[in-house]
Amino acid sequence: MGRAKKVVLAYSGGVDTSVCIPYLKHEWGVEEVITLAADLGQGDELEAVKEKALKSGASESLVVDVKDTFIKDYAFSAIQANALYENRYPLATALARPLIAKALVETAQKYGADAIAHGCTGKGNDQVRFDVACAALNPNLKILAPAREWGMSREETIAYGERFGIPAPVKKSSPYSIDKNLLGRSIEAGVLEDPTFEPPEEIYEMTKAIADTPNEPEYIEIGFTKGIPTNLNGEHKNPIELIEQLNHLAGNHGVGRIDMIENRLVGIKSREIYESPAMVVLIQAHRDLESLTLTADVTHYKRGIEETYSQLIYNGLWYSPLKAALDAFIQKTQERVSGTVRVKLLKGNATIVGRRSENSLYTPDLATYGAEDQFDHKAAEGFIYIWGLPTRIWAQQTRG
Fold first, then answer.
1. A single GO CC term, please (predicted)?
2. What is the pTM for the complete model shown?
């Protein structure tokens, strides 16, 4: 079944992506498989992952460090857009997919490969994200998805791998499916598939249980420059530092846990657990700073854009014309979104308690009810008459 001669495979070191290597070669006639593992801050021993790919039959095993790009070009864009899928999930896993796809396509071009491959099944969102992103970046590359077609159970997949020298997992594998990167963790499957079941504490890694968090609040200050977080507690931080430190600070107070029934792109509902402390706090703080620095009409109009933007990321359309057009709108809105937001962390909550900006549109002399009030109260009567005129006419016509 010769579909391609040279293939670049997105590689994680797990059972499925390891078995993809001999499967592509022996079942589909691929001559050469090059693996690519992206370092997104998942904390795995990527040197071991690299070795495993070679032992599984890869001709070359590559590891690329994309952490800085991941935060600067993907996470920060999502923060500027206040991107929360279904108003809850800050897209930590989804944001990594277009970046991995970009690395796959660039590697395929560099090595003269005629196809890229991944180990996604036919049920999830990631297959769509990889396939569509790769097609958008290079429509001439073939896209192979062996796990979507081989029809093997997990036991059969492990047995197939053993035939080609891939060892079965030595320890009992976790009953959960976990994906982790710098921005957070997603946890699904196992007992979590019962939507009435309370998640056990053992599944969490980045966030403390509320009972174990400090009893006293911790105040932090986050500085933004044109919508991008640049400072933490008065100190300039590089993108990776800022995310890592904020993950630790917020996670220590139990902030960033999400338990939701999510609408997948393929049409099914799934129960998803997420931990994403830094992203949860940053989006909340950024949105608050916008309320201080953007006009009312821009703020209200941007809310609809944000929902669309979140859906585009979730649905694998990062490299789409609509996403590019929305990027231009969002970047224009961010020109004045600079300032500092004060956040109180306590018992699972991140509460905005203060904000300041040189670009603030808040005018104390107009907002105050004190003696300094500059608002022309006499102007209100005429304004209300004009504003309410359509309603008054409608009432006269319909209520007699």
1. cytoplasm
2. 0.92
